[in-house]
Amino acid sequence: MLVMMYLILFRGPRKKQQQHKQMMQALSKNDRVQTIGGIIGTVVDIKDDEITLKIDESNNTKMKILRSAISRNMSKD
């Protein structure tokens, strides 16, 4: 019973956190990503903790966000 509780409560979130960390390390220019706020854009530049996204092709609109704000890489899905 305790083993089941451990697997449900601790292993699941840890595995998801590790997958997110790997996704962040594999992030590169021209990847299409979605932020935790739902904004979708293309990675233009990557610095330490800052990523520049192009969010509008017609106006060349760019936005700087924190690396931690990326929720998923749509290019790899």
Number of helices: 1
Written as H for each helix and E for each strand, in order along the chain, the element string is HEEEEE
Number of strand segments: 5
Multimeric organization: single chain
User: N- to C-terminal separation?
Assistant: 36 Å
Low-confidence runs (pLDDT<50, min 5 residues)?
Answer: none
Structural class comes to alpha+beta
- Indicate the overall shape: elongated
Features:
1 helix; alpha+beta; five-stranded antiparallel beta sheet; elongated; 77 residues; 36% strand
Describe the structure.
The protein has 77 residues and is an alpha+beta fold. It has a single domain, classed as SH3 type barrels, CATH 2.30.30. It is 31% helix and 36% strand. It has one helix at residues 2-25; strands spanning 32-35, 40-46, 50-56, 61-66, 70-73. It has a five-stranded antiparallel sheet with strand order 4-3-2-1-5, covered by helices on one side. The model has no long low-confidence stretch (mean pLDDT 90).
Topology diagram in text:
Elements: H1 2-25, E1 32-35, E2 40-46, E3 50-56, E4 61-66, E5 70-73
Antiparallel strand pairs: 1-2, 1-5, 2-3, 3-4
How would you concisely characterize the structure shown here?
By secondary structure, the protein is an alpha+beta fold. It has one helix and five strands; from the N terminus they run αβββββ. It is elongated and about 55 Å long.
